[in-house]
Structures are given as structure tokens and as C-alpha cells.
């Protein structure tokens, strides 16, 4: 499928004027027409191939928050998915080490949680060491925390004397020895700093692997957050080489030491601005403000409840770690942010390379900063969560982004973090309006207040929400916060009812990346390991769930015309085995993506993709009457003004309407140019069907149409 094409089938367009049609026409990678087969045929030359497909066709899915590169690198890492005990974790690491001999690091990107393991705790550094003696092991947990083995601690120089870095924490046993759990990005950075960086070939391979997986889920546009300079360069290379097959909005990572000016220099250095802008664009700045809900580190306005959490080391030997009866004491020092010093210009994710804050040079104390939670028992009741950036740094990044006409996506899980972001954006908005610039809250799922929702709506701040996260760690939220507060998490219904624009994402590859899964969870509120829904009052409707992962997410990623199918929009389509708007949400679990199209080109196809190809006759009637279900009557347009630069795709203005008369062919003139027109029909939805402009049939949205 490429070039000029007519596709016939059941089509959901997400266009409010014509929400459901039976055919689409594609010309040069863009939608030329939607409507009946006759409408579509009128928009393309005679002899254009026609494809009839089964199932349902929808706009390509858009994921507003997915780590594409992380998804691509999983093939080279040990898989811990489905592991049910520490012994099984050790066995998988041991098998990976045998299959990949040498002294290279062993890493995993799966979200290992204590409630998934029979021991109801995480493995220690010593236990990980026995699985791969002498080799560094790092198991990432949702991009926030990590588990490392004894060799990794030694290589990173992490000992009992190592201070906690600002915004992070080294978990310790009662004797003060590191347990192997590194909490939040600055602590994980201590270990990542001694891991050899991936090569350019690695990045290109990960892009290829990651996009293949996303395309198989019907995703045609993806926002990849917190990418490094090297990753930006790899994306730009792929876009220039023509190997990038889906649209990517890349979010560079800002930090205490990486300024907005640094991000500008990085984009220029890696050639991002010279890449194909239809496939790769620089997105909003990514900022991390707090931790995670299931990790117990999100920034809350009220203290985290006092409750036991799984220890990071086994019972009963105190030297190996705390037992539930003897919790590890929390450090008494107050975390402080690093001072905002000029950057070297090297932009890497927080946790990699020279942009890391130095624990030896703390900056002024921010009263909102707090210690991250221990893996023992939380004994004090004044812990509110972890703030990883100072208010001043968040304000500086957002102010500079707004002045440059760009936005920022701020990771803010807890209600206190959400309020802080909205306070900052209110201050920025007083000088530079932030609406429409790409500012959005990322996650925003723990206790946002009605006032916060109102402020977000009034400021034009969007929310990137991720139903798969609740599916993934709903039980963990219940464990940490109790049933009621966990049920209120990820309040999609409330956000939408407040008038806030919400876009869907997966935050994969940890949580499931399939938008169909996210839609199902958003409609049912089911969570992993639990039979009954969690917070069903926050469920959304079928149309809202589809919009979440199409038009809603597209507003956040910034791709013009993506997430819908209207004349002039990119021809990005996903072909499904059935209707995603089915009244029974559980039907979504049985639907599959059979093919995916980007820019009118088929980039993914399953063996069971059913299509029948035919070819139109080489001649067509001069003025075929379309079967337009919206047409109120035989109204004809007698003259039109068209844009010559877009004469093959869009009608931009219409003069008068002459009911029941056929317009004569001739030269139409108007303020936007001139072109040769024939005749057409105007529907109540102000669309015109069947026009012939300079010998080419066109469809498009019209302006003021008398009687239309």
C-alpha cells in the first residue's frame, strides 16, 4: 500500500463531522477523502488501486509517554517478567550470564516488585552476587530505583561511608552497609556512571527493535521522554537515513545542572533540526519532580502512612539486612538540591554522565525536599515523599521553555508535586501564556485536588495519563496507601469532567505498551492480581478511551493531524480485528492489530491481515453522485476559491450554494487563488463532496457556506 490508494472498510475517523465512514482515499501519504467508496474514488485518479479490508480501521494510536529505546534494548537484557521468587530471579540472571559470557554488565528493565515474589521482598546485593559472581548486575525499577549486586557496589565505590546524593538515597541495613537498593535517579547514577556507555550501533539497534514492537501495537506516533544527546543523535540519524518508520517526539531531559540552553545546544549538535520534521521533532523538556506511588516516594501533601514495607534483605541475619521486627533506621539528614552550576553542554539523562549533581556540593535547602522511603518499616510520620528538583530549577526550565515557544512535561505523581508544578506554571503564565506550548503533567495520579484540576484547565495544562501503570502496581498502592486512596488513583473520570485535556500513554516497556490494553484498563479499572475493579467510579467511556490514545495523546505529542482521519491529515492508520467502541470493554482483550500504516505506507502486517485488492476503471463519470449520509439535499456549489498550492487536497473556501443545480465548470477565483472547479455537494457539516479541481477531485472542510 503506497502512493494513491482507496481503502474500503469500517472506518472510525475521530472526525466529529464524519465520525464513521466506509472508505478513505490516500494521496501522497495524506488523507484525500473520507466517506463512501464513491467519495473516495472521486478523490483519486482513475485506475487507483482499491483495497477492501475486514475488521475496523482507526487512526494510528498515539502514545504520549513511552520509552521506545528502553523497549528496544530489552532483547539484550535479562528478562525477569513473571519471576515469582528470588531463587527464580537468580536462576534467570545465572542463565543470562552463561549465555553471554565475559565480564560485561548484566541489566534488566523489568519492574521487579516485592509483592510479585514469594519472599515478599526484594533481593539483596549478596543474593544477586551469587547469581553472577564478579560481574556487575543492575536491575532497573521503573526508571526510578535500581537493585545492584556486590560487584556493582564495589565498582561504583558505594560503601557505608558514601553519603546519599541530593534527591536520592542508598538503602542501608542496621549496620549502615548498603543493601543493594538505590532509590531515585541521583542514587542510581552512582552505579550507572561506571557502566560503559552504549555505542551508536546499540542505539540504532534499539530504535529498530523498539519501533517494531510499537508498530505491532498499532502505534504510529510516540513521545519518548528523557532521551540523552546520544539518543537524540541516533534518532536524527535514523530519520535522515529513512529507517525511522514511525513518528517520534523526543523529550530532552532537563536537570539541576542541564539548562534549557544546554538542551538547545544538544539539539543543534546532534542535527535534530535537520532531520525529517514529519517523523522526528524535539518535544517539551522532560523534568523529574518526585518519585513514584508504588515505590512510596511520590511527593504528597500529607505524610505517607506508617506501615511495614518489604525489607530489602532477608531475615534473620542483621548483617545481611533488617528484619521486619528490626527496621532499618532512616538517616536524619535533610536532602538538599545541588547548586545550579553551568553545564558542560553534555546532555545525558539524570543518572548518566557528567550532568549528575555532586553530593559534595549541595545547594541551598529547599524545605519541600525530603528523604525517600526506606525498605524497612517507616517509623516516623512526617515523610511526605521525595522531591528531586528544587522549585527554582523547575521555574527556570519552564520560564525558558515558554519564552522559546516550547513546553515542558513534568513528572509529578503526588498531589504536592502537582500543586508545585501548577504554582510554577501560574507564575510563568503571568508573563508568557503557557497554553498551547506543550506544558503537561506526567502521571499526576495520586490525589490531585479539584482546585488543581481547575487550575490545570484554566492554564491550558494537559495531563499525560497512563492506565497501564495502575494495572501494573495497583496492589502496591493498596499496600502503601490503603484501599480508598488506591482506588482514587489515576482519576481519569475526574480530570475529564473538570475539562482538562488528557492524553494516554503506557510508560512502557515496564507496563504493557498496547493501547488496546490501556483502553481496556481505563474502561474497567482492573489491576493485576485482583479480581474486582479498583475505583470503578473513575472509569471512562468507550469513545473517551479511544480518544485518549488518539486525539488526546496527539495534543500532547504535538503531531499536527495525527490521531484522526480528515482530509489533509497524515495517512496513519491501525487495522484491528474488531470494533474498539464495542459496549463490552472485555472485548478489547480479544482484539488484535493486524496491520499498521504510517504516511500511507504499510509498515507492519500480520500473516492474518485480510485484504482484497482491485483496481478502479481507467475512466470515471465526470460528476458521480456520492452516497453521502450527511447530505441534507441535492445542494450544489456553483463557485469556489481554492488554494493552488494545495489544489490536490483541500478546498479552502466556497462562494454560494445553488440548490438543485449543477454548477458549470469554469475558472473560480477568490482571495486565496484560482483553480478550475466542476461541481459538488455541501453537507450540513460544511463539507463539500465531489469537486474537481484542476482535473483532480478534492474533499475538504469549507468555510461559510450559505445554506450548508
From TrEMBL:
It holds the Pfam family Amidohydro_3. InterPro entries: Amidohydro_3, Metal-dep_hydrolase_composite, Metal_Hydrolase, YtcJ-like. Residues 299-372, 604-638 are annotated as: Disordered. Keywords: Hydrolase. Residues 331-344, 609-622 have a biased composition (Low complexity). Residues 305-330 have a biased composition (Pro residues). It comes from the Bacteria. Residues 628-638 have a biased composition (Basic and acidic residues). The keyword Hydrolase applies. Residues 56-308, 384-604 form the Amidohydrolase domain. GO terms for molecular function: hydrolase activity, acting on carbon-nitrogen (but not peptide) bonds. This is Amidohydrolase family protein. It comes from Actinoplanes derwentensis.
Amino acid at each position: 500500500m503506497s502512493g494513491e490508494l482507496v481503502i474500503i472498510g469500517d472506518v472510525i475517523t475521530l472526525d466529529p463531522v464524519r465520525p464513521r465512514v466506509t472508505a478513505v482515499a490516500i494521496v501522497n501519504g495524506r488523507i484525500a477523502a473520507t466517506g463512501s467508496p464513491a467519495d473516495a474514488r472521486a478523490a483519486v485518479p482513475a485506475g487507483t488501486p482499491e483495497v477492501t479490508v475486514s475488521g475496523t480501521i482507526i487512526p494510528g494510536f498515539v502514545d504520549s509517554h513511552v520509552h521506545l529505546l528502553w523497549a528496544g534494548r530489552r532483547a539484550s537484557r535479562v528478562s525477569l517478567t513473571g519471576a515469582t521468587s528470588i531463587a527464580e530471579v537468580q536462576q534467570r540472571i545465572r542463565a543470562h550470564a552463561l549465555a553471554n559470557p565475559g565480564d560485561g554488565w548484566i541489566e534488566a528493565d523489568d519492574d521487579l516488585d516485592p509483592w510479585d515474589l514469594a519472599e515478599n521482598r526484594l533481593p539483596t546485593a549478596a543474593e544477586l552476587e551469587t547469581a553472577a559472581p564478579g560481574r556487575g548486575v543492575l536491575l532497573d525499577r521503573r526508571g526510578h530505583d535500581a537493585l545492584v549486586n556486590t560487584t556493582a557496589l564495589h565498582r561504583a565505590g558505594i560503601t557505608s561511608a558514601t553519603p546519599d546524593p541530593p534527591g536520592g538515597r542508598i538503602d542501608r541495613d542496621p549496620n549502615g552497609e548498603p543493601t543493594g537498593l538505590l532509590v531515585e535517579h541521583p542514587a542510581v547514577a552512582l552505579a550507572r556512571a561506571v557502566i560503559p556507555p552504549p555505542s551508536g550501533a546499540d542505539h540504532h539497534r534499539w530504535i529498530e527493535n523498539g519501533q517494531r514492537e510499537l508498530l505491532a501495537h498499532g502505534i504510529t506516533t510516540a513521545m519518548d521522554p528523557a532521551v540523552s544527546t546520544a539518543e537524540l543523535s541516533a534518532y536524527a540519524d535514523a530519520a535522515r537515513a529513512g529507517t525511522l518508520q514511525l513518528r517520534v517526539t523526543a523529550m530532552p531531559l532537563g536537570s539541576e545542572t542541564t539548562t534549557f540552553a544546554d538542551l538547545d545546544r544538544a539539539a543543534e549538535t546532534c542535527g535534530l533540526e535537520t532531520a525529517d520534521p514529519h517523523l522526528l521533532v524535539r518535544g517539551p523538556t522532560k523534568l523529574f519532580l518526585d518519585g513514584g506511588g508504588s515505590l512510596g516516594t511520590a511527593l504528597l501533601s500529607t505524610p505517607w502512612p506508617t506501615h511495614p514495607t518489604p525489607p530489602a534483605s532477608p531475615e534473620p541475619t542483621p548483617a545481611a539486612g533488617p528484619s521486619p521486627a528490626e527496621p532499618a533506621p532512616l538517616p536524619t539528614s535533610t536532602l538538599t538540591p545541588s547548586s545550579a552550576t553551568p553545564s558542560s553542554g553534555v546532555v545525558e539523562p539524570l543518572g548518566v554522565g557528567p550532568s549528575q549533581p555532586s553530593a559534595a556540593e549541595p545547594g541551598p535547602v529547599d524545605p519541600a525536599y525530603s528523604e525517600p522511603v526506606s525498605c524497612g518499616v517507616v517509623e516516623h510520620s512526617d515523610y511526605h515523599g521525595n522531591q528531586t528538583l528544587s522549585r527554582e530549577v523547575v521555574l527556570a526550565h519552564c520560564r525558558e521553555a515558554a519564552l522559546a515557544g516550547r513546553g515542558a512535561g513534568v513528572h509529578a505523581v503526588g498531589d504536592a508535586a502537582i500543586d508545585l508544578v501548577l504554582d510554577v506554571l501560574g507564575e510563568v503564565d503571568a508573563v508568557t501564556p503557557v497554553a498551547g506550548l506543550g506544558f503537561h503533567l506526567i502521571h499526576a495520579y495520586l490525589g490531585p485536588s479539584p482546585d488543581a484540576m481547575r487550575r490545570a484547565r484554566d492554564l491550558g495544562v494537559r495531563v499525560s495519563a497512563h492506565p497501564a501503570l495502575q494495572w501494573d502496581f495497583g496492589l502496591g498502592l493498596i499496600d502503601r496507601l490503603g484501599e480508598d486512596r488506591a482506588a482514587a488513583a489515576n482519576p481519569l473520570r475526574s480530570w475529564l469532567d473538570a475539562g482538562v485535556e488528557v492524553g494516554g500513554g503506557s510508560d512502557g516497556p515496564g507496563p504493557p505498551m498496547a493501547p488496546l490494553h490501556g483502553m481496556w484498563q481505563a474502561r474497567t479499572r482492573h489491576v493485576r492480581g485482583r479480581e474486582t475493579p479498583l475505583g470503578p467510579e473513575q472509569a471512562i467511556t468507550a469513545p473517551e478511551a479511544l480518544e485518549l490514545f488518539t486525539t488526546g495523546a496527539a495534543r500532547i505529542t504535538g503531531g499536527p493531524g495525527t490521531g484522526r482521519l480528515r482530509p489533509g491529515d497524515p495517512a496513519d492508520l491501525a487495522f484491528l480485528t474488531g470494533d474498539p467502541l464495542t459496549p463490552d470493554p472485555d472485548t478489547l482483550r480479544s482484539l488484535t492489530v493486524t496491520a499498521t500504516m504510517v504516511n500511507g505506507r504499510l509498515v507492519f502486517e500480520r500473516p492474518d491481515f485480510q485484504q482484497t485488492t482491485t483496481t478502479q476503471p481507467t475512466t470515471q463519470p465526470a460528476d458521480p453522485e456520492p452516497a453521502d449520509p450527511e447530505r441534507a439535499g441535492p445542494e450544489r456549489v456553483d463557485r469556489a476559491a481554492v488554494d493552488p498550492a494545495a489544489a490536490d487536497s483541500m478546498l479552502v473556501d466556497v462562494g454560494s450554494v445553488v440548490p438543485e443545480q449543477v454548477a458549470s465548470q469554469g475558472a473560480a477565483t477568490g482571495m486565496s487563488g484560482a483553480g478550475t472547479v466542476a461541481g459538488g455537494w455541501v453537507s450540513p457539516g460544511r463539507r463539500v463532496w465531489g469537486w474537481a479541481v484542476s482535473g483532480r477531485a478534492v474533499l475538504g472542510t469549507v468555510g461559510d457556506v450559505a445554506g450548508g
